[in-house]
Specification:
The chain is mainly β and 582 residues long. Helix content is 10%, strand content 54%.
């Protein structure tokens, strides 16, 4: 457990350093009074920047937005997977059209195409003032005299305007139905192929899809949403038991109306992810929502629930749900939501699920986000018994000091709900009654200098049988080998139920035209307790090369090759992600 002690010591030292840096950076009252009104307005009115994940490696993911979209190094971003929950990350490096994000919780690894959101200050989108060329006193006098002769006499045309009105108070906004029809979206291709020396096995998984939105399709402010993909999976083995499957998976086909400043009611029909409470999943049916003048919103939905598998078949599970969302002000930095869903499996009452969410996401200082899933059981639920049970929870809280140090806490809880819907692999009755997993982790990142930083993480977990721990310490140095490069060295370890591991990772990434390269090497020594003495030590080597590329026209590309070696076996994996945004 030496690595755990090392991680704990690093966290303690970095925590002291983080606290000292935060104290040093705190401005004095006299300095606070010098903040301009523009800065106050921007801090209270952040802009939302939406993005998608293009690739993932280790504790880092690449996203398809960068400095051109208002993002900066050190910004906090949030991933919003379709299964629900809010997962945080910090931008490690921002390029023009892409950014490298370090995950707060490495246990969450978003796949390509996962949606996300960041809130940035509005002043980042303002055009910089253009400084006029300097003129000599004689030139300035002649220019002013000439302009005075050419300019007509000015008269005030805003006699009805008062100083307490907003600047654009008299400007009439354009209604949705007055805008021309438009099409936005993306098309993508994902391919993964693995060759393994074990049984000479080959596995391939290929996806071709599109996500398109037609706005103001018929001239009444409506929208048509289309999203789907073709999946092809192929497995080849020497004994002629090859498998090959191809499916068309319609993710979303829906039509919506309203939901704008002119139409507070929003209606959506078809197949879509619940907009009011995404944790309720995809439904085939109808959803209505209303936004109040205060910014609060509420609504309800009714329809069938497609099976969350490769075929997305429907008509077995029916649901009705309702929700309410509260916001503190127009910036939506502080919000809370609650919802209830009742499901029926083959016309029989099944699940009573309540979901609660709370988020406080200011541009600076401490932030918090949390989602909990609570099930209500009756006497018919034999394994759980009557009452209320916390099925799932994911809570995160963190802060960032002025010098770039970050401190984050993560808590997660997971257990099986007792439901008839085929949402999980079959489990035994005792597993359904007792199995759970609770995990608490803390992660710290501290800026040692302008070009170097170090980080530490420590996590503890417990399940129905025992508990364990994991930890990691790492050092990151910029411009160490060559300019525009980042060298990262990490040592990690874990103590599990049947295995222990200790290893290290060396990473090198560098900027390239319109993207970046990354090279990673990882070694782990794994000790498996349940195997024989001759087969309980398994060394594992992994070498990975990754290239990310983005263009001004909306193309994003990510490609990687990975080599794996352990004992007498080896593997080769190739991955490609290609996306075109429009």
């Amino acid at each position: 457990m030496a690595f755990i002690a090392l991680a704990a010591a690093a966290l303690a030292c970095a925590g002291s350093a983080w606290a000292q840096s935060a104290d040093v950076q705190e401005p004095a009252p006299a300095q606070e009074e010098q903040v301009s009104s523009q800065e106050v307005r921007s801090a209270g009115d952040p802009e939302k920047v939406e993005f998608r994940v293009t690739s993932a490696r280790g504790n880092f993911v690449n996203i398809d937005r960068g400095t051109a979209d208002g993002l900066r190094s050190g910004d906090r971003v949030f991933f919003l997977p379709r299964e629900g929950g809010t997962f945080a990350g910090t931008i490690s490096e921002a390029l023009d059209r892409s950014s490298l994000v370090e995950l707060v919780d490495p246990g969450f690894l978003p796949g390509p195409g996962t949606r996300g959101m960041a809130q940035v200050s509005a002043d980042r989108f303002e055009a910089p003032a253009v400084k006029p060329a300097e003129e000599s006193p004689v030139q300035a006098t002649e220019t002013n005299a000439q302009e005075a002769r050419e300019q007509p006499t000015w008269t005030n045309q805003d006699s009805e305007f008062t100083p307490n009105q907003p600047l654009l108070a008299k400007v009439q906004p354009v209604r949705p139905e007055e805008r021309p029809p438009s099409v936005t979206g993306r098309t993508y291709f994902i391919a993964d192929q693995i060759w393994s020396s074990e049984d000479d096995r080959k596995d391939g998984f290929f996806r071709l899809g599109a996500d398109v939105e037609y706005e103001n399709l018929t001239g009444i402010g409506d929208a048509l949403h289309l999203e789907g993909e073709i999946n092809v999976r192929r497995t080849e083995v020497p004994d002629d038991d090859d498998e090959s499957q191809g499916r068309l998976r319609p993710e979303r086909i829906s039509y919506s109306l309203g939901g704008t400043r002119f139409a507070p009611d929003r209606l959506e029909f078809g197949r879509f992810l619940s907009r009011g409470m995404s944790e309720f999943g995809v439904i085939d049916g109808f959803e209505w929502g209303r936004r109040l003048p205060s910014g609060d919103s509420y609504g309800a939905s009714i329809g069938w629930m497609p099976e969350p598998d490769k075929s997305f078949e429907s008509l077995q599970d029916f649901q009705v749900s309702t929700y309410y969302r509260w916001i503190a002000d127009a910036s939506e930095q502080l919000s809370a939501a609650a919802g209830f869903q009742k499901t029926f499996h083959n016309s029989n009452a099944d699940r009573d699920l309540a979901v609660g969410k709370l988020a406080y996401l200011p541009p600076k200082g401490w932030n918090f986000s949390g989602t909990v899933w609570v099930d209500y059981y009756t006497s018919g639920d034999e394994e759980k018994g009557s009452g209320v049970d916390l099925t799932q929870a994911y809570l995160t809280s963190g802060t960032r000091s002025e010098d770039g140090a970050t401190l984050d806490f993560i808590y997660s809880h997971m257990e099986f709900p007792e439901i008839d819907r085929e949402e999980f692999l079959p489990v035994e009755d005792d597993q359904l009654a007792d199995d759970h997993n609770d995990r608490l982790a803390v992660r710290l990142r501290s800026q040692a200098s302008a070009d170097s930083r170090w980080r530490a993480a420590l996590g503890v977990w417990a399940d129905e049988d025992e508990e364990g721990a994991d930890g990691e310490v790492g050092w990151e140095q910029r411009n160490f080998i060559f300019q525009q490069s980042v060298t990262d060295l990490s040592i990690f370890g874990a103590n599990g139920r049947h295995s222990d591991s200790l290893g290290g990772r060396l990473s090198l990434s560098w900027n390239a035209p319109q993207g970046r390269w990354a090279l990673d090497y990882e070694f782990a020594a794994n000790q498996i307790d349940t195997f024989s003495d001759n087969n309980n030590d398994i060394p594992q080597h992994r070498l990975r090369l990754n290239r990310d590329y983005q263009t001004q026209s909306g193309w994003s590309f990510s490609g990687n090759v990975e080599l794996g070696f352990w004992d007498d076996e080896n593997s080769v994996a190739l991955g490609v992600y290609l996306q075109r945004s429009f």
